Write the structure tokens for this entry.
Amino acid sequence: MDRFIVIHAVKSGATQDEVWESSHIAATSAVRGAKWLRSYFLPESDELICDWEAPDEAAIRESLKLAESERLIPVKRIDLAVYVDPEFFK
């Protein structure tokens, strides 16, 4: 399974509760083996950086469409990523 980084823009005026609700739906709506692993909110740039595991980008986009996340946190881009853990080097 490949790893992907998804960068979302957090729309101005979106409340934390609205973003959490959208995130909850995305976590429970994942399809075709896609799995949302973790996210980081960058308040200075109003971005949400999400780490996903999925067979392909399309599975992530389908999962996000089902969650209707574009309304509050539209996707800016999705990049294939290589996971590196410091534990690999011990």
Summary: The helical segments are 16-29, 57-66. The CA atoms of residues 8 and 75 lie 4 Å apart. The chain has two helices and four strands. The mean pLDDT is 91.
